[in-house]
Design a protein that fits this description.
This protein is an all-alpha fold. Helix content is 87%, strand content 0%. The chain contains two helices and no strands. The model has no long low-confidence stretch (mean pLDDT 87).
Length: 54
């Protein structure tokens, strides 16, 4: 019985690994988008209003 349970657990693990790291990729993409959005907000709110510095 223990071997049967181990086989089922291995099959579940193989299925999870086969699907790939989609959650990690999604998290990285969202984080990157947030950082880029913050950069644009900072650029348009701080640098452009100051104008050209001479």
């Amino acid at each position: 019985m223990n071997e049967d349970q181990d086989a089922k657990d291995d099959a579940k693990l193989d299925e999870i690994v086969r699907r790939g790291p989609s959650g990690a990729v999604a998290l990285a993409g969202i984080s990157t988008a947030i950082v880029i959005a913050m950069w644009f907000i900072f650029y348009f709110a701080v640098f452009l209003p100051r104008g050209v510095i001479q």
